[in-house]
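so my prof wants the structure for this chain in the tokens format not the other one, which i didnt know existed until like an hour ago. anyway here's the sequence
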Amino acid sequence: MKEYTAQLLVDGIVQGVGFRPTVYRLAKVMNLTGYVRNMGNIVEILIQGTYDDIQLFVDELQEHKPIRSEINSINLDIREEVTSTTRYNDFTILNSSDELSGSAVIPPDMTICDECLEEIVDLNNHHYYYPFTACTNCGPRFTVIDQVPYDRKNTTMDEFPLCNHCAKEYSNPLDRRYHAEATCCPDCGPQVFLYNDEHIPSQDPIRDASKLIDEGNILAIKGIGGTHLVCKTSTDDAIDKLRERLGRKTQPFACMTPDVETAKLFVEFSDDEKKMLESVSRPIVILNKSQDYNLSENLSPNLHNQGVMLPYTGLHHLLFKYTLEPAYVMTSANMPGNPMLIDNKEILSKLDNIADYYLLHDRKILNRCDDSVVRFRNGKPGFIRRSRGYVPKPFDFSKINNTDNILAVGPELDVTFSILKEGKCYPSQHIGNTSKIRTLEFMQDAIKHLLKLTRTDSLNYIVADMHPEFNTTKLAKQLSEEYDAQLVQVQHHHAHASSLMAEHQLPEMVVIAADGVGYGEDGNIWGGEILYLNNTGHYINHGGLQTQPMPGGDLSTKYPIRMAMGILYGVMDSDELGKLMKSDYADYFKYGEQEVDMVLKQLENDFNTSKTSSMGRVLDSISVLLGISKNRGYEGECSMKLESVAREGFDLLNIDLDFEMIDDRAIINTSNLLLDVVQLIKSGVGADEIACACQRALAEALTEIAIIAAKSNKTSTIGVTGGVFYNEFISKVVKEKVISAGFEFVQHEATCAGDGSVSMGQCAIVGWRNSSLNELI
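here's what i got, hopefully its the right format
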């Protein structure tokens, strides 16, 4: 039978996941000749065999690819017939080539695999008790890579030359550590050290660290993508000390527990939530507290849920070997708003008044990467933060734009940036609050690095938010000049909605966009809008929540009682409103009754009162009026506590919330809603019943407008986006009403409902506008 030479170019997550040795073993089993190698952004396979053998090889490769790999496409080119001069005598693995350019798909960091974990606890194994044990199926990837192709010389592991034992494994194609770039052992790899003010000699730093935590100390522990602050969770004292030192009085802390059996002692989870906990990405999963919750109440005060993750490194597993604690606090080691610390000297100096001890290692973290956070709503996962374990895995934008190189820089809080190249959109790791200079500097460095990894030398468009004062907007202007690229600014909630539409690969939809803040086309702050959008990159605003005054501007977000006054001002007499505030809420104001009078004057004179339609501000106002919160200590606190209290209600109270047409837009009167709240409080109705009824009323009113908008635009899909839709109850009510009306319901599942996916939506908008792939529907 005739034999042919075939070239396969394999695109996807195919580097750093044991792909080449899998190809090698498959070719050997099938008696095929040729070679396999990394080529910059892809894997090239050249095989020789019959036509049927080649087709069978392709099928078998897709069927038996490595567990951590993902194949996006295989470009098969069957070339000339094999002759005596072109025949290969064997199948080999060649050194990496840099011939091809283009965007790379770098694998995310992965949890330690079961095989490596077994070796760590095997007294007779070379990797016994070694916290950095890794293979082709696990370990750091994105956080250690400097450039593609993904070879050891291009990672921070290059600083640790392999010993003879590891070199033998590394060079054996039949070994699972063949070209495992993160592989190492106690003889040649990174080491762990214990510090306080200076290095503490220790034969077992991890065991000593665990003991110090159990004694009530706070430790800074350096991991894969950053540093955690760690303390015990069974009593209040260590948590209270950590809160005092960080200045985070009420913000919930995530915790790490050794396994799901231990997690059952304090949280509840479904089968899907359990799968997420145990997944290779090991995110923090927000879970409902169990009735037998036995951790300190100060871990997540006044909330019904708790962030939980499982160990994802050998160091974590070893840390839990020596403790009876059910869980440890694991929170990012950074001062509020600043990026997580990754450099040993900075960790020791900047955490000097926070950590009592430090467990550090000498492997460099090249790419800072916070833990990912996931919460389930309507039985589906959604990201609060998409970072470690997922980044820089791209999204398929091949149906949006295949030709333009686009950089989108996101909003200001919970920022990520995204790069669109060759039909792939790469969202970055979590960046954070770019109003802080150090975080903005981190973002600039991260942009340069991801451009380097994706081999993006030129940019056609730089995309930013419409807000003129965001540091990201200013950065975008600077970068547009540097790259000679066109600057485009898009509306915040349009970008929110577009990330949802791009995730689900839809041509059009109606979206309820509800969150805390977004600069609107009219110069006001939006946050409760119904938008129709399609794949032309444009939208129509069909209405939403009433625009309300924010006395003192941003002060109304920190002290929501001011926002409540602004909303009630439209339906209450000034004297009556002032009397209510002074009699029932004076201590909610920083300056008491004097401030009440000042806020009334601001409202009367329309002085320093920006306008907002934000649903987040409405929910915050309800929370403070019900006495659930007094002020905001962290982003979303008031609304989150409102949700927790509402869970105790029986969902029997009905609040009618109507809308009226104003300038062809349907507007919901939220002043009447808050007036209802005040009257229900006076009549003695419980806070839990009112909270539940308010959430339902807002959800149903917004959905009613969305259904009308969907019918008028003849679209079959309605979706939800924005931070409000982390709320499980509100999401459930909207879904039920949408489906009962005969429409398809979609929500974020692989992206963030909050600002973490705005940059992805920005890429989509500009991609649609400048693509020949999409036409007006």
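also thought this was worth mentioning. The longest helix spans residues 687-712.
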